[in-house]
Amino acid sequence: MLGARVLDEQPRHVGLDRGKQSLLQLLLMAVVGVISGRLFWLQIIQGDLNHTRARENSVRVAPSQPIRGQMVDRHGEVLASSQLVHRLYVWPKQAASPQWPQLRQRLSALIGVPEEELEERRANFRAGDYRIALTDDLTPEQTIKLLEQANRLPGAEVGVDYLRAYPNGITAAHALGYTSPITDSELSHLASRGYQIQDRIGRTGLEAAYENHLRGQWGGRTLEVSANGDVQRPLGEKPSIPGKDLRLTMDLRLQQAAEKALSKYPVGAVVAMDPEDGAILAMVSRPAYDPNFFSQPVKPQEQLYALFHSSALPMLNRALNPYNPGSVFKVVTAAAGMESGLFPPGTKLPTMACIVYGSHCFPEHNGEGFGQIGYVDALRFSSNTFFYQVGVEVGSMHLYGAAVNLGFTRRSGIEIGFDEDPGLVGNEEWAAAGRGWAEPGQTPWIPEDMASASIGQSVVQVSPIQVALAYAAIANGGWLVQPHFSSLDPQTGEPVDWLARRQAIDFDPETWTTLQQGLRKVVADGTGYGMNSETLPAVSGKTGTAEDNSSHGADHSWFASYAPSDDPEIVVVAFAANAPGGGSRHGLPIAKAVMEAYFNP
What we know:
By secondary structure, the chain is of the alpha+beta class. It has two domains: 60-247, Penicillin-binding protein 2a (Domain 2) (Alpha-Beta Complex); 252-297 and 313-599, 3-Layer(aba) Sandwich (Beta-lactamase). Helices cover 37% and strands 19% of the residues. Strands 2, 3, 4, 5 and 10 form a five-stranded mixed beta sheet that branches. A five-stranded antiparallel beta sheet has the order 12-11-23-22-21, sandwiched between helices. It has a three-stranded antiparallel beta sheet with strand order 1-8-9. Strand 8 (219-225) and strand 9 form a beta hairpin. Helix 13 (330-340) crosses helix 15, helix 13 packs across helix 16 (396-405) and helix 15 (384-394) crosses helix 18 (447-454).
């Protein structure tokens, strides 16, 4: 009976086990179905999107900014460099997450910056920034606090940047130029050349001319980053390549002397140059500006307006822009007279109180004349009536031709001449074409024009750099040099033989000799007598006083010079706008101070 009971119970246990197995199978199939469905959704339906997200979440490239090359003077003194600054950054993903308000609060409390300011910086970042700058320059104390609390600040980090710095402030500002952040439109066509949205680019002056030489190349770090934006580990690094330093022909000490000499004049310029090869030793323009202003992260609107919209035009380089030159232009009239053959070097002409041309009696500046004189004494006394006669007789086209040969009416070729104005030497063809403002045929050339042009007035406008080139050609005996700040070509970065770039001026040797003799007499015993000094070698030069035909203000003052007279090493041109009293009163003392600094270091 017992055996029978056992046999009777076996089917009930087997049925129970089979039921459990079926339930487990159903549960397993359900789980597999859910997982398969989820995998189908993630890998098939949203596969491409999730693949992109995974890649972005796992690897991030952090660009590494290159340090911009320094600019130094001929003796190695630093004129422009790069200053290291620390800034607080946050990853864009973290700044967009629900945890951002909490992180913002922590950061604000830690470094003492209002949350509103951090939020404004977060909201205004540019698309394309790989991280958001929440501050500008951090103090050392702020930097230390952030580094100490780094583990409690996920997604935030302290980064290193470089800002352009000009240790001498406004000194040589127009020559050096400045940098500022690249714009979105610029980046659209410069990205292919390695520029990044965080780049700063040279805007003016040598910063712009030698941009390719100075800027360097970006590097970067490849980082493994979690989905929360935390950096897990570095995967690799390509170091940035620093920009190359640029040694200039300028002399900082001479530049500072020129700046000081011109400092009391609101508007003016000084150019000091080597007459043999055109190397710029100093260049000053007033009013000036501080290029460090453009390295500031925040630039007050009123200061920007004052720089770019003020009637004082502080951004304009006066050394490269034209003014009426007055008597410093008389060397051109003398050259035209001798080269035309109408007034050879030995010519003597009577001078008088005034000479009538057209409807006007053009005066001698001393009111009586200097008797019968030749070129040397005409330059020495700066006789107006002598040069009226020469200029009117040779005519406007001979005068224009001599001016072109001496470097006027065209750009100088200097590296920073982006906005250089070629100036004007008026002539009958220019007048017949309408003088730039009238219809052709309505403004004919008249005798009064010719008389004024002969002494550098009215229809003649030249720049200080052009005057320096003309006087360098007289100093070196007939070579038109190309002014420059560096031994390197700004386009190629290769060394340049600047002597080989000089252009021979096809004047008779006696023309050069006569001009040299006249300019020496100006200083030895003429209107430039105040240039003489026991501490200076023999100097040659020319004073100039010019009416201001542009704004009808007070007269301009000029002095153009070179020294030593018999073996010139330096040309100095000084210009003070609207400084009544004549070239001997204003331009000469400026040039003399520069000469003293050069010959008495």
